[in-house]
Amino acid sequence: MQDFASSFFLAVSLILSGDPELWSIVLLSLKVSLTAVAIAAMIGMPIGAALGVGRFAGRRALIVLINALMGLPPVVVGLMVYLLLSNSGPLGVLQLLYTPTAMIIAQVILVTPIVAALTRQVVEDLDAEYAEQLRSMGVSRLASVPTLLWDGRTSLMTAVLAGFGRATAEVGAVIIVGGNINHVTRVMTTAIALETSKGNLALALALGAILMLIAISVNAAVGLLGVRSERVAHA
Amino acid sequence: MPDAALAHSLEPRIAPAEGSAGADTGSVLPVSAAGLVFTVNGKRLVDIDRLTLRAGGPTIIMGPNGAGKSLLLRLLHGLIEASEGTVLFNTQPMNARVRRRQAMVFQRPVVLRRSVQANIDYALAAAQGYRGPSRRGRLRELLEMGGLADMARQRARTLSGGEQQRLALVRAVAASPDLLFLDEPTSSLDPASTHRIEALIHRFADEGTKIVMVTHDLGQARRLAGEVVFMHRGKVTEQTPANVFFDAPSSPAARDFITGGLLV
Ligand SMILES: Nc1ncnc2c1ncn2[C@@H]1O[C@H](COP(=O)(O)OP(=O)(O)OP(=O)(O)O)[C@@H](O)[C@H]1O
Ligand SMILES: [Mg+2]
Domain ranges in chain A? Predict the structure, then answer.
Protein backbone atom coordinates (compact mmCIF):
# COMPACT_ATOMS: atom_id res chain seq x y z
CA MET A 1 0.00 0.00 0.00
CA GLN A 2 2.87 2.27 0.91
CA ASP A 3 4.29 1.40 -2.46
CA PHE A 4 1.09 2.53 -4.16
CA ALA A 5 0.89 5.80 -2.26
CA SER A 6 4.46 6.75 -3.07
CA SER A 7 4.00 5.76 -6.70
CA PHE A 8 0.90 7.88 -6.83
CA PHE A 9 2.66 10.98 -5.52
CA LEU A 10 5.57 10.38 -7.82
CA ALA A 11 3.13 10.12 -10.73
CA VAL A 12 1.53 13.43 -9.84
CA SER A 13 4.92 15.09 -9.63
CA LEU A 14 5.92 13.58 -13.00
CA ILE A 15 2.89 15.14 -14.61
CA LEU A 16 3.19 18.50 -12.88
CA SER A 17 6.94 18.85 -13.35
CA GLY A 18 6.60 18.28 -17.09
CA ASP A 19 8.83 15.18 -17.06
CA PRO A 20 10.38 15.05 -20.56
CA GLU A 21 10.14 11.26 -20.94
CA LEU A 22 6.49 11.24 -19.94
CA TRP A 23 5.55 14.05 -22.27
CA SER A 24 7.51 12.73 -25.22
CA ILE A 25 5.48 9.52 -24.93
CA VAL A 26 2.22 11.46 -24.74
CA LEU A 27 3.16 13.62 -27.71
CA LEU A 28 4.11 10.63 -29.84
CA SER A 29 0.80 8.96 -28.96
CA LEU A 30 -1.14 12.02 -29.99
CA LYS A 31 0.89 12.44 -33.16
CA VAL A 32 0.34 8.83 -34.21
CA SER A 33 -3.35 8.71 -33.36
CA LEU A 34 -4.25 12.12 -34.76
CA THR A 35 -2.47 11.31 -38.02
CA ALA A 36 -4.20 7.95 -38.19
CA VAL A 37 -7.61 9.50 -37.54
CA ALA A 38 -7.04 12.22 -40.15
CA ILE A 39 -6.14 9.61 -42.76
CA ALA A 40 -9.01 7.35 -41.69
CA ALA A 41 -11.42 10.28 -42.04
CA MET A 42 -10.16 11.02 -45.54
CA ILE A 43 -10.69 7.39 -46.55
CA GLY A 44 -13.73 6.54 -44.42
CA MET A 45 -15.91 9.57 -45.09
CA PRO A 46 -16.04 9.23 -48.88
CA ILE A 47 -16.69 5.49 -48.52
CA GLY A 48 -19.43 6.16 -45.98
CA ALA A 49 -20.96 8.89 -48.12
CA ALA A 50 -20.94 6.68 -51.21
CA LEU A 51 -22.64 3.90 -49.26
CA GLY A 52 -25.11 6.40 -47.81
CA VAL A 53 -26.38 7.93 -51.05
CA GLY A 54 -25.27 5.46 -53.71
CA ARG A 55 -27.50 2.66 -54.98
CA PHE A 56 -25.36 -0.05 -56.51
CA ALA A 57 -25.03 -3.80 -56.54
CA GLY A 58 -23.21 -5.15 -53.50
CA ARG A 59 -23.99 -2.10 -51.40
CA ARG A 60 -25.78 -4.11 -48.68
CA ALA A 61 -22.94 -6.59 -48.49
CA LEU A 62 -20.39 -3.78 -48.20
CA ILE A 63 -22.33 -2.20 -45.34
CA VAL A 64 -22.43 -5.51 -43.48
CA LEU A 65 -18.72 -5.97 -44.09
CA ILE A 66 -17.81 -2.53 -42.80
CA ASN A 67 -19.99 -2.92 -39.74
CA ALA A 68 -18.23 -6.21 -39.07
CA LEU A 69 -14.81 -4.60 -39.52
CA MET A 70 -15.66 -2.14 -36.74
CA GLY A 71 -15.17 -5.02 -34.33
CA LEU A 72 -11.76 -6.12 -35.63
CA PRO A 73 -9.57 -7.29 -32.72
CA PRO A 74 -6.54 -4.95 -32.58
CA VAL A 75 -4.05 -7.79 -32.10
CA VAL A 76 -5.24 -9.41 -35.30
CA VAL A 77 -4.82 -6.13 -37.16
CA GLY A 78 -1.36 -5.85 -35.62
CA LEU A 79 -0.50 -9.33 -36.81
CA MET A 80 -1.75 -8.63 -40.34
CA VAL A 81 0.22 -5.40 -40.61
CA TYR A 82 3.27 -7.17 -39.15
CA LEU A 83 3.07 -9.85 -41.83
CA LEU A 84 2.74 -7.18 -44.51
CA LEU A 85 5.67 -5.10 -43.29
CA SER A 86 8.09 -7.74 -42.01
CA ASN A 87 11.27 -8.27 -44.03
CA SER A 88 9.82 -11.29 -45.82
CA GLY A 89 6.41 -9.65 -46.30
CA PRO A 90 5.13 -8.02 -49.50
CA LEU A 91 5.91 -4.53 -48.22
CA GLY A 92 9.12 -5.52 -46.44
CA VAL A 93 11.32 -3.45 -48.71
CA LEU A 94 9.78 -0.30 -47.29
CA GLN A 95 11.45 -1.05 -43.93
CA LEU A 96 8.49 0.33 -42.02
CA LEU A 97 8.24 -2.23 -39.24
CA TYR A 98 8.91 -0.75 -35.79
CA THR A 99 8.39 2.83 -36.98
CA PRO A 100 5.61 5.28 -36.09
CA THR A 101 4.41 4.89 -39.68
CA ALA A 102 3.69 1.21 -39.03
CA MET A 103 1.62 2.18 -35.99
CA ILE A 104 -0.26 4.76 -38.03
CA ILE A 105 -1.05 2.14 -40.68
CA ALA A 106 -2.40 -0.25 -38.06
CA GLN A 107 -4.56 2.44 -36.46
CA VAL A 108 -5.88 3.61 -39.84
CA ILE A 109 -7.09 0.05 -40.43
CA LEU A 110 -8.77 0.03 -37.02
CA VAL A 111 -10.40 3.45 -37.32
CA THR A 112 -11.47 3.64 -40.98
CA PRO A 113 -14.37 1.16 -40.61
CA ILE A 114 -15.70 3.15 -37.64
CA VAL A 115 -15.62 6.42 -39.56
CA ALA A 116 -17.07 4.82 -42.70
CA ALA A 117 -19.89 3.04 -40.88
CA LEU A 118 -20.94 6.06 -38.83
CA THR A 119 -20.67 8.38 -41.84
CA ARG A 120 -22.86 6.02 -43.83
CA GLN A 121 -25.53 6.16 -41.13
CA VAL A 122 -25.41 9.95 -40.82
CA VAL A 123 -25.50 10.57 -44.57
CA GLU A 124 -28.26 8.03 -45.19
CA ASP A 125 -30.52 9.44 -42.46
CA LEU A 126 -30.04 13.00 -43.60
CA ASP A 127 -30.54 12.01 -47.23
CA ALA A 128 -33.89 10.44 -46.38
CA GLU A 129 -34.93 13.83 -45.05
CA TYR A 130 -33.35 16.02 -47.74
CA ALA A 131 -33.53 14.00 -50.97
CA GLU A 132 -36.81 15.33 -52.39
CA GLN A 133 -36.11 18.91 -51.39
CA LEU A 134 -32.65 18.88 -52.98
CA ARG A 135 -33.99 17.20 -56.08
CA SER A 136 -36.67 19.87 -56.28
CA MET A 137 -33.97 22.53 -56.18
CA GLY A 138 -32.18 20.82 -59.07
CA VAL A 139 -29.27 19.52 -57.03
CA SER A 140 -27.92 16.28 -58.48
CA ARG A 141 -27.32 13.22 -56.31
CA LEU A 142 -23.59 13.72 -56.52
CA ALA A 143 -23.78 17.42 -55.73
CA SER A 144 -25.95 16.71 -52.70
CA VAL A 145 -23.12 14.79 -50.98
CA PRO A 146 -21.21 17.90 -49.78
CA THR A 147 -24.50 19.32 -48.53
CA LEU A 148 -25.25 16.18 -46.55
CA LEU A 149 -21.74 16.05 -45.09
CA TRP A 150 -21.82 19.72 -44.15
CA ASP A 151 -25.26 19.59 -42.54
CA GLY A 152 -24.31 16.36 -40.77
CA ARG A 153 -21.03 17.76 -39.54
CA THR A 154 -21.93 17.57 -35.85
CA SER A 155 -22.68 13.87 -36.09
CA LEU A 156 -19.63 13.33 -38.26
CA MET A 157 -17.47 14.90 -35.57
CA THR A 158 -18.84 12.26 -33.23
CA ALA A 159 -17.72 9.57 -35.67
CA VAL A 160 -14.22 11.02 -35.84
CA LEU A 161 -13.97 11.35 -32.07
CA ALA A 162 -15.12 7.77 -31.63
CA GLY A 163 -12.35 6.75 -34.01
CA PHE A 164 -9.81 8.80 -32.08
CA GLY A 165 -10.93 7.15 -28.85
CA ARG A 166 -10.35 3.70 -30.32
CA ALA A 167 -6.96 4.71 -31.74
CA THR A 168 -5.52 6.15 -28.52
CA ALA A 169 -6.82 3.36 -26.31
CA GLU A 170 -5.76 0.29 -28.24
CA VAL A 171 -2.53 -1.50 -27.36
CA GLY A 172 -2.58 -4.81 -29.21
CA ALA A 173 -1.82 -3.54 -32.70
CA VAL A 174 0.78 -0.88 -31.92
CA ILE A 175 2.80 -3.11 -29.65
CA ILE A 176 3.19 -5.70 -32.41
CA VAL A 177 4.04 -3.35 -35.28
CA GLY A 178 5.74 -0.61 -33.25
CA GLY A 179 7.72 -2.78 -30.89
CA ASN A 180 7.53 -0.29 -28.01
CA ILE A 181 11.01 1.11 -28.68
CA ASN A 182 11.99 3.87 -26.31
CA HIS A 183 11.86 7.35 -27.89
CA VAL A 184 10.84 5.86 -31.23
CA THR A 185 7.61 3.91 -31.01
CA ARG A 186 6.73 3.98 -27.33
CA VAL A 187 3.20 5.33 -26.92
CA MET A 188 1.00 5.64 -23.85
CA THR A 189 -0.66 2.25 -23.96
CA THR A 190 2.48 0.27 -24.72
CA ALA A 191 4.47 2.21 -22.12
CA ILE A 192 1.84 1.52 -19.48
CA ALA A 193 1.99 -2.20 -20.25
CA LEU A 194 5.78 -2.25 -20.10
CA GLU A 195 6.32 -0.01 -17.08
CA THR A 196 3.72 -1.90 -15.07
CA SER A 197 5.43 -5.21 -15.76
CA LYS A 198 8.78 -3.63 -14.85
CA GLY A 199 7.29 -2.37 -11.60
CA ASN A 200 7.74 1.29 -12.52
CA LEU A 201 4.27 2.12 -11.32
CA ALA A 202 4.79 5.87 -11.11
CA LEU A 203 5.30 6.37 -14.85
CA ALA A 204 2.55 3.86 -15.64
CA LEU A 205 0.13 5.66 -13.35
CA ALA A 206 1.01 9.09 -14.73
CA LEU A 207 0.46 7.87 -18.29
CA GLY A 208 -2.71 6.08 -17.24
CA ALA A 209 -4.07 9.28 -15.73
CA ILE A 210 -3.39 11.25 -18.91
CA LEU A 211 -4.84 8.51 -21.12
CA MET A 212 -7.94 8.40 -18.95
CA LEU A 213 -8.27 12.17 -19.15
CA ILE A 214 -8.10 11.99 -22.94
CA ALA A 215 -10.65 9.18 -23.05
CA ILE A 216 -13.03 11.04 -20.75
CA SER A 217 -12.64 14.27 -22.71
CA VAL A 218 -13.38 12.50 -25.96
CA ASN A 219 -16.46 10.87 -24.49
CA ALA A 220 -17.62 14.13 -22.99
CA ALA A 221 -17.15 15.84 -26.36
CA VAL A 222 -19.15 13.10 -28.07
CA GLY A 223 -21.86 13.44 -25.44
CA LEU A 224 -22.03 17.21 -25.73
CA LEU A 225 -22.20 17.08 -29.53
CA GLY A 226 -24.94 14.47 -29.25
CA VAL A 227 -26.99 16.59 -26.89
CA ARG A 228 -26.61 19.61 -29.14
CA SER A 229 -27.78 17.87 -32.30
CA GLU A 230 -30.60 16.11 -30.45
CA ARG A 231 -31.89 19.37 -29.07
CA VAL A 232 -32.15 20.71 -32.58
CA ALA A 233 -33.69 17.51 -33.86
CA HIS A 234 -36.59 17.73 -31.41
CA ALA A 235 -37.09 21.44 -31.67
CA MET B 1 -17.87 28.53 -37.40
CA PRO B 2 -16.30 29.60 -40.73
CA ASP B 3 -19.69 29.35 -42.38
CA ALA B 4 -19.22 31.88 -45.11
CA ALA B 5 -15.87 30.63 -46.34
CA LEU B 6 -16.90 27.01 -46.45
CA ALA B 7 -20.37 27.65 -47.73
CA HIS B 8 -18.95 28.92 -50.98
CA SER B 9 -17.10 25.74 -51.79
CA LEU B 10 -20.15 23.75 -50.74
CA GLU B 11 -22.54 25.41 -53.10
CA PRO B 12 -24.66 22.94 -54.98
CA ARG B 13 -23.75 22.48 -58.58
CA ILE B 14 -26.11 21.59 -61.35
CA ALA B 15 -25.42 19.86 -64.59
CA PRO B 16 -26.14 22.09 -67.57
CA ALA B 17 -29.30 21.34 -69.48
CA GLU B 18 -28.70 18.43 -71.80
CA GLY B 19 -28.81 19.15 -75.46
CA SER B 20 -31.50 21.83 -75.41
CA ALA B 21 -30.61 24.79 -77.59
CA GLY B 22 -28.91 26.38 -74.62
CA ALA B 23 -30.92 29.51 -73.93
CA ASP B 24 -32.83 29.62 -70.66
CA THR B 25 -35.91 30.88 -72.43
CA GLY B 26 -39.23 29.50 -73.53
CA SER B 27 -42.13 28.83 -71.21
CA VAL B 28 -42.53 25.56 -69.36
CA LEU B 29 -46.31 25.98 -69.72
CA PRO B 30 -48.66 24.39 -70.38
CA VAL B 31 -48.01 21.33 -68.23
CA SER B 32 -49.74 18.36 -69.74
CA ALA B 33 -50.11 14.93 -68.23
CA ALA B 34 -51.34 12.02 -70.31
CA GLY B 35 -52.21 8.53 -69.11
CA LEU B 36 -50.51 9.33 -65.83
CA VAL B 37 -50.62 6.34 -63.47
CA PHE B 38 -48.83 5.74 -60.19
CA THR B 39 -49.18 2.24 -58.83
CA VAL B 40 -48.04 0.77 -55.52
CA ASN B 41 -48.63 -2.92 -54.88
CA GLY B 42 -51.19 -3.07 -57.67
CA LYS B 43 -53.16 -0.11 -56.28
CA ARG B 44 -53.60 2.74 -58.74
CA LEU B 45 -53.05 5.62 -56.34
CA VAL B 46 -53.03 8.13 -59.18
CA ASP B 47 -54.82 7.42 -62.45
CA ILE B 48 -55.33 10.42 -64.71
CA ASP B 49 -56.26 10.23 -68.40
CA ARG B 50 -55.47 13.79 -69.30
CA LEU B 51 -54.76 16.95 -67.38
CA THR B 52 -53.52 20.25 -68.78
CA LEU B 53 -52.46 23.18 -66.63
CA ARG B 54 -52.28 26.40 -68.62
CA ALA B 55 -50.78 29.78 -67.89
CA GLY B 56 -53.23 32.02 -66.06
CA GLY B 57 -54.85 32.14 -62.64
CA PRO B 58 -53.90 29.67 -59.91
CA THR B 59 -55.01 26.06 -60.25
CA ILE B 60 -56.35 24.87 -56.90
CA ILE B 61 -56.40 21.13 -56.36
CA MET B 62 -59.01 19.94 -53.89
CA GLY B 63 -60.21 16.59 -52.69
CA PRO B 64 -60.50 14.45 -49.57
CA ASN B 65 -57.53 13.10 -47.60
CA GLY B 66 -55.76 10.35 -49.46
CA ALA B 67 -57.23 11.35 -52.83
CA GLY B 68 -53.75 11.50 -54.33
CA LYS B 69 -53.20 15.28 -54.42
CA SER B 70 -49.69 15.22 -52.96
CA LEU B 71 -48.74 12.30 -55.19
CA LEU B 72 -49.99 14.21 -58.23
CA LEU B 73 -47.83 17.22 -57.34
CA ARG B 74 -44.80 14.95 -56.88
CA LEU B 75 -45.45 13.29 -60.24
CA LEU B 76 -45.86 16.61 -62.04
CA HIS B 77 -42.77 18.06 -60.35
CA GLY B 78 -40.77 15.00 -61.34
CA LEU B 79 -39.89 13.81 -57.85
CA ILE B 80 -41.35 10.36 -58.32
CA GLU B 81 -41.36 8.21 -61.40
CA ALA B 82 -44.77 7.53 -62.94
CA SER B 83 -45.65 3.86 -63.47
CA GLU B 84 -47.22 4.83 -66.79
CA GLY B 85 -47.77 7.97 -68.78
CA THR B 86 -45.96 11.21 -69.39
CA VAL B 87 -45.69 14.75 -68.11
CA LEU B 88 -44.63 17.38 -70.63
CA PHE B 89 -43.75 20.99 -70.07
CA ASN B 90 -44.61 22.89 -73.21
CA THR B 91 -43.87 19.67 -75.13
CA GLN B 92 -40.57 19.06 -73.35
CA PRO B 93 -39.99 16.31 -70.82
CA MET B 94 -38.35 17.12 -67.50
CA ASN B 95 -34.75 18.28 -67.92
CA ALA B 96 -32.36 20.57 -66.08
CA ARG B 97 -33.74 23.73 -67.67
CA VAL B 98 -37.35 22.79 -67.03
CA ARG B 99 -36.42 21.81 -63.48
CA ARG B 100 -34.80 25.18 -62.84
CA ARG B 101 -37.96 27.01 -63.87
CA GLN B 102 -40.14 25.33 -61.25
CA ALA B 103 -40.24 24.86 -57.48
CA MET B 104 -42.32 23.17 -54.83
CA VAL B 105 -43.27 23.67 -51.20
CA PHE B 106 -43.97 20.38 -49.49
CA GLN B 107 -46.86 19.55 -47.22
CA ARG B 108 -44.25 18.97 -44.50
CA PRO B 109 -41.60 21.56 -45.26
CA VAL B 110 -38.00 20.38 -45.28
CA VAL B 111 -35.61 22.98 -43.91
CA LEU B 112 -31.87 22.44 -44.08
CA ARG B 113 -29.95 22.32 -40.81
CA ARG B 114 -28.56 25.77 -41.34
CA SER B 115 -29.55 29.31 -40.54
CA VAL B 116 -32.67 30.80 -42.09
CA GLN B 117 -30.64 32.94 -44.46
CA ALA B 118 -28.35 30.05 -45.38
CA ASN B 119 -31.45 28.08 -46.40
CA ILE B 120 -32.50 30.81 -48.80
CA ASP B 121 -28.96 31.39 -49.98
CA TYR B 122 -28.65 27.69 -50.76
CA ALA B 123 -31.63 27.90 -53.11
CA LEU B 124 -30.16 30.99 -54.77
CA ALA B 125 -26.86 29.21 -55.29
CA ALA B 126 -28.62 26.13 -56.64
CA ALA B 127 -30.55 28.26 -59.10
CA GLN B 128 -27.39 30.04 -60.28
CA GLY B 129 -27.91 33.35 -62.03
CA TYR B 130 -27.46 35.12 -58.72
CA ARG B 131 -23.97 36.32 -57.93
CA GLY B 132 -22.37 38.86 -55.64
CA PRO B 133 -24.42 41.92 -54.67
CA SER B 134 -27.54 40.89 -56.57
CA ARG B 135 -27.61 37.69 -54.51
CA ARG B 136 -27.34 39.57 -51.21
CA GLY B 137 -30.04 41.98 -52.31
CA ARG B 138 -32.35 39.18 -53.35
CA LEU B 139 -31.69 37.42 -50.03
CA ARG B 140 -32.74 40.47 -48.05
CA GLU B 141 -35.80 40.91 -50.22
CA LEU B 142 -36.87 37.31 -49.64
CA LEU B 143 -36.32 37.53 -45.88
CA GLU B 144 -38.57 40.60 -45.79
CA MET B 145 -41.11 38.87 -48.00
CA GLY B 146 -41.41 35.96 -45.58
CA GLY B 147 -41.41 38.15 -42.48
CA LEU B 148 -38.20 36.42 -41.45
CA ALA B 149 -35.78 39.34 -41.39
CA ASP B 150 -35.51 39.26 -37.59
CA MET B 151 -34.69 35.55 -37.64
CA ALA B 152 -32.18 35.58 -40.48
CA ARG B 153 -29.42 34.07 -38.35
CA GLN B 154 -31.57 31.68 -36.36
CA ARG B 155 -31.14 27.97 -37.03
CA ALA B 156 -33.99 27.08 -39.36
CA ARG B 157 -34.85 23.91 -37.44
CA THR B 158 -35.64 25.96 -34.37
CA LEU B 159 -38.31 27.98 -36.21
CA SER B 160 -41.95 27.33 -35.38
CA GLY B 161 -43.97 25.22 -37.82
CA GLY B 162 -45.57 28.27 -39.39
CA GLU B 163 -42.25 30.09 -39.68
CA GLN B 164 -40.76 27.01 -41.38
CA GLN B 165 -43.63 27.04 -43.88
CA ARG B 166 -42.98 30.70 -44.62
CA LEU B 167 -39.28 29.98 -45.05
CA ALA B 168 -40.04 27.09 -47.40
CA LEU B 169 -42.25 29.37 -49.51
CA VAL B 170 -39.79 32.21 -49.94
CA ARG B 171 -36.99 29.71 -50.53
CA ALA B 172 -39.09 28.13 -53.29
CA VAL B 173 -39.64 31.46 -55.05
CA ALA B 174 -36.01 32.52 -54.57
CA ALA B 175 -35.20 32.18 -58.26
CA SER B 176 -38.59 33.43 -59.49
CA PRO B 177 -39.88 30.17 -60.93
CA ASP B 178 -42.45 30.14 -63.74
CA LEU B 179 -44.26 27.23 -62.12
CA LEU B 180 -44.81 26.85 -58.39
CA PHE B 181 -46.32 23.80 -56.72
CA LEU B 182 -47.69 24.44 -53.24
CA ASP B 183 -48.92 21.57 -51.07
CA GLU B 184 -51.14 23.05 -48.36
CA PRO B 185 -48.73 25.95 -47.78
CA THR B 186 -50.85 27.58 -45.08
CA SER B 187 -51.91 24.47 -43.18
CA SER B 188 -50.12 25.49 -40.00
CA LEU B 189 -50.27 29.26 -40.29
CA ASP B 190 -52.19 31.68 -38.11
CA PRO B 191 -54.76 33.96 -39.81
CA ALA B 192 -52.34 36.87 -40.15
CA SER B 193 -49.64 34.70 -41.75
CA THR B 194 -52.22 33.01 -43.95
CA HIS B 195 -53.38 36.40 -45.15
CA ARG B 196 -49.81 37.40 -45.80
CA ILE B 197 -49.06 34.21 -47.76
CA GLU B 198 -52.23 34.58 -49.80
CA ALA B 199 -51.22 38.12 -50.66
CA LEU B 200 -47.82 36.80 -51.76
CA ILE B 201 -49.45 34.09 -53.87
CA HIS B 202 -51.63 36.73 -55.52
CA ARG B 203 -48.53 38.77 -56.21
CA PHE B 204 -46.60 35.83 -57.72
CA ALA B 205 -49.62 34.99 -59.87
CA ASP B 206 -49.91 38.59 -61.05
CA GLU B 207 -46.22 38.57 -61.91
CA GLY B 208 -46.81 35.59 -64.15
CA THR B 209 -45.94 32.60 -61.99
CA LYS B 210 -48.25 29.68 -62.55
CA ILE B 211 -49.49 28.50 -59.14
CA VAL B 212 -50.61 24.91 -58.65
CA MET B 213 -51.78 24.60 -55.10
CA VAL B 214 -53.44 22.01 -52.88
CA THR B 215 -55.66 23.30 -50.10
CA HIS B 216 -58.49 22.03 -47.92
CA ASP B 217 -59.59 25.54 -47.07
CA LEU B 218 -62.68 26.33 -49.14
CA GLY B 219 -62.50 30.03 -48.30
CA GLN B 220 -58.90 30.15 -49.42
CA ALA B 221 -59.75 28.26 -52.59
CA ARG B 222 -62.47 30.83 -53.37
CA ARG B 223 -60.05 33.69 -52.73
CA LEU B 224 -57.24 32.35 -54.88
CA ALA B 225 -58.55 29.98 -57.50
CA GLY B 226 -58.59 30.67 -61.19
CA GLU B 227 -59.73 27.10 -61.71
CA VAL B 228 -60.30 24.09 -59.51
CA VAL B 229 -59.12 20.55 -60.14
CA PHE B 230 -61.03 18.09 -58.01
CA MET B 231 -59.52 14.71 -57.16
CA HIS B 232 -61.19 11.64 -55.75
CA ARG B 233 -59.60 8.21 -55.30
CA GLY B 234 -56.67 9.01 -57.57
CA LYS B 235 -58.78 10.38 -60.40
CA VAL B 236 -59.47 13.91 -61.52
CA THR B 237 -63.25 14.11 -61.50
CA GLU B 238 -63.40 17.65 -62.79
CA GLN B 239 -61.42 20.69 -63.84
CA THR B 240 -63.64 23.75 -63.72
CA PRO B 241 -63.23 27.54 -63.64
CA ALA B 242 -63.47 28.72 -60.04
CA ASN B 243 -66.67 30.72 -60.34
CA VAL B 244 -68.46 27.75 -61.85
CA PHE B 245 -66.99 25.21 -59.44
CA PHE B 246 -68.18 26.81 -56.24
CA ASP B 247 -71.65 27.54 -57.59
CA ALA B 248 -72.29 24.38 -59.50
CA PRO B 249 -69.63 21.67 -59.37
CA SER B 250 -70.31 19.14 -62.06
CA SER B 251 -69.09 15.96 -60.35
CA PRO B 252 -71.17 14.48 -57.54
CA ALA B 253 -68.00 13.88 -55.51
CA ALA B 254 -67.10 17.58 -55.63
CA ARG B 255 -70.68 18.59 -54.80
CA ASP B 256 -70.64 16.37 -51.72
CA PHE B 257 -67.18 17.62 -50.76
CA ILE B 258 -68.29 21.25 -50.79
CA THR B 259 -71.36 20.53 -48.71
CA GLY B 260 -69.18 18.47 -46.37
CA GLY B 261 -70.89 15.18 -47.12
CA LEU B 262 -68.18 13.30 -49.01
CA LEU B 263 -67.07 10.09 -47.41
CA VAL B 264 -63.94 8.52 -48.81
N1 LIG C 1 -45.26 5.22 -51.18
C2 LIG C 1 -46.53 4.87 -50.94
N3 LIG C 1 -46.84 3.58 -50.71
C4 LIG C 1 -48.11 3.22 -50.49
N5 LIG C 1 -49.13 4.07 -50.45
C6 LIG C 1 -48.87 5.38 -50.66
C7 LIG C 1 -47.57 5.84 -50.91
N8 LIG C 1 -47.61 7.17 -51.07
C9 LIG C 1 -48.89 7.52 -50.92
N10 LIG C 1 -49.66 6.44 -50.68
C11 LIG C 1 -51.11 6.45 -50.51
O12 LIG C 1 -51.66 7.14 -51.60
C13 LIG C 1 -52.80 7.86 -51.22
C14 LIG C 1 -52.69 9.29 -51.68
O15 LIG C 1 -51.68 9.96 -50.94
P16 LIG C 1 -51.51 11.53 -51.01
O17 LIG C 1 -50.43 11.89 -50.09
O18 LIG C 1 -51.34 11.93 -52.42
O19 LIG C 1 -52.90 12.05 -50.47
P20 LIG C 1 -53.44 13.53 -50.39
O21 LIG C 1 -54.53 13.66 -51.37
O22 LIG C 1 -52.32 14.49 -50.50
O23 LIG C 1 -54.06 13.56 -48.93
P24 LIG C 1 -53.99 14.68 -47.79
O25 LIG C 1 -55.12 15.59 -48.06
O26 LIG C 1 -54.24 13.90 -46.55
O27 LIG C 1 -52.65 15.32 -47.83
C28 LIG C 1 -52.90 7.71 -49.71
O29 LIG C 1 -53.92 6.78 -49.43
C30 LIG C 1 -51.57 7.19 -49.30
O31 LIG C 1 -51.69 6.34 -48.19
MG1 LIG D 1 -51.31 15.70 -49.22
Answer: 21-187
